[in-house]
Design a protein that fits this description.
The chain is an alpha/beta fold and 428 residues long. The chain folds into three domains: 3-121, Methylthiotransferase, N-terminal domain (Rossmann fold, 3-Layer(aba) Sandwich); 142-365, pyruvate-formate lyase- activating enzyme; 371-426, OB fold (Dihydrolipoamide Acetyltransferase, E2P) (Beta Barrel). It contains 13 helices and 19 strands. A six-stranded parallel sheet has the order 2-1-3-4-5-6, with helices on both faces. Strands 15-16-17-19-18 form a five-stranded mixed beta barrel. It starts with a strand and ends with a strand. The model has no long low-confidence stretch (mean pLDDT 96). Bound molecules: 5'-deoxyadenosine and iron/sulfur cluster. Residues 11-12, 14-15, 48-50, 81-82, 159-160, 163-164 line the site of iron/sulfur cluster.
């Protein structure tokens, strides 16, 4: 008999890709993805613990599906991901309807769950870098590829080193083999994934890995996330030299105030960050930059926040993800004095978002009239009479649907700029 699995995925790209790994592993055991949780024999929550809000979303959804066990007594429920690792006992105690808890280092056990009793799988997995997974990828043209796991940075606000463990890099040979296989199957783009990709180190370093991947000759190669401290001139040179690497970088700044950066344990100053950005923009004028900002880190004064505003205005990012600081138990910042009131965080966040909106529009308007190479992702979700794709610099572009399939590469002249996307016309 056919078996069905439904996966709720929260959080970052790492989690999205982990769900692809779980789905692929389960497909080997005869599972198909269910369209709704009501039809599933196994429901998996792939959770995120980065902020309280993400955790909340999971707990309330977990409560909402509890009744499904009454109508289907054979239904199994598994909690995977970062909340599973961090709050395993709490999940098991608070939710007796949960059968399995599996941390991010133990995804591979997902294939054996149906035969197992209520259990926790949260041990450190020293072999994670060597684990090969069957994958069920969402897209047939763009693929995520894990190159390293875990994080050693211990930014004082962050739970990730505790949930995903210490940094380990996958052997380059296995990464290269995976990407060669993707190319053979018609993939056009890969995004290399890791908590801190530029500290990748196996037999070769990150730049060495990029050179090997470039030789495979895919259309586009991207990577996330880079730590500003580890962004070397060798990496910047690789971005210039290697034709498959895209002209886009996500480089989390977190704050524009040096005192806050230091309390965050980020190990760079705002001036050092700017110097690196200056170097990149000098060598690749078309590069786009996006960033993450935390608002209301403990001790953030009005003048510290003003420094962040100043930074955002000075740098003019193409994209910014800004978050209110959220206390995470077990991290150093959680115990710090001078926690900032919620109302102050909310007000500062709004101010920053408004400033950034104008900047994005200005940056997008500067592209009107330019010709951009677009990789088509399919029909636009909001308007199926339109095609949607991305520039090499990762800007979203819509154009009238002309029948081009997913994965097609078109040259488009940009005619209109909006806040979140551009609109253009294919060059004939
Ligand atoms: N509170 C708010 N934002 C956080 N991030 C990480 N930890 C926290 C936290 N405790 C943000 C950082 C990081 C992004 C993925 O999430 O900006 O770059
Ligand atoms: Fe991803 Fe971090 Fe959330 Fe874990 S806690 S899912 S690593 S964003």
């Amino acid at each position: 008999m056919k078996k069905f699995v439904f996966i709720y995925t929260y959080g970052c790209q790492m989690n999205v890709h982990d769900s692809e790994k779980m789905l692929g592993t389960l497909a080997q055991e005869g599972y198909t993805a269910a369209t709704v949780p009501e039809k599933a024999d196994l429901i998996i929550f792939n959770t995120c613990a980065i902020r309280e809000k993400a955790e909340h979303k999971f707990y309330s959804q977990l409560g909402r599906i509890k009744h499904l066990k009454k109508s289907n007594p054979l239904l199994k429920i598994a909690v995977a991901g970062c909340v599973a690792q961090d709050s395993r006992q709490k999940v098991m105690k608070r939710a007796p309807h949960v059968d399995f808890v599996l941390g991010p280092q133990n995804l591979h056990v997902v294939g054996n769950l149906q035969t197992s009793k209520r259990n926790l799988y949260v041990d450190e997995n020293p072999d994670i870098a060597y684990q090969e997974y069957a994958m069920h990828r969402e897209s047939a043209t763009r693929a995520w590829v894990s190159i390293m796991y875990g994080c050693n940075n211990f930014c004082s606000y962050c739970i990730v080193p505790y949930t995903r463990g210490r940094e380990v890099s996958r052997p380059s040979s296995s990464i290269v083999a995976e990407i060669k296989g993707l190319k053979e199957r018609g993939y056009r783009e890969v995004t290399l994934l890791g908590q801190n990709v530029n500290s990748y180190r196996s037999d070769i370093d990150f730049v060495g890995l990029l050179r090997q991947i470039d030789r495979i000759g895919l259309e586009r190669v991207r990577f996330v996330t880079s730590h500003p401290r580890d962004l070397s001139t060798a990496l910047i040179d690789a971005l210039v030299e290697l034709p498959t690497l895209c002209n886009n970088l996500h480089l989390p700044l977190q704050s524009g105030a040096d005192a806050i950066l230091q309390a965050m344990n980020r190990k760079y100053t705002y001036a050092e960050y700017c110097e690196k950005i200056g170097l990149i923009r000098g060598k690749i004028p078309s590069v786009t930059l996006s960033t993450d900002i935390i608002i209301g880190f403990p001790g953030e004064s009005e003048s510290d926040f003003e420094q962040t505003v100043k930074a955002i205005k000075e740098i003019e990012f193409d994209g910014m993800f800004a978050f209110k600081y959220s206390k995470r138990k077990g991290t150093r910042a959680c115990e710090m004095a001078d926690q900032v009131p919620e109302s102050v965080k909310a007000e500062r966040l709004n101010r920053l978002l408004m400033i950034q909106e104008d900047i994005v529009l200005k940056r997008n308007r500067a592209l009107v009239g330019s010709v951009q190479e677009i990789l088509i992702e399919g029909a636009s979700e909001t308007d199926p009479s339109m095609l949607m794709g991305r520039t090499r610099s990762n800007k979203i572009v819509t154009l009238d649907h002309n029948g081009a399939p997913e994965g097609a590469v078109l040259n488009v002249i940009i005619e209109k700029a909006r806040h979140h996307s551009l609109h253009g016309k294919e060059l004939s």
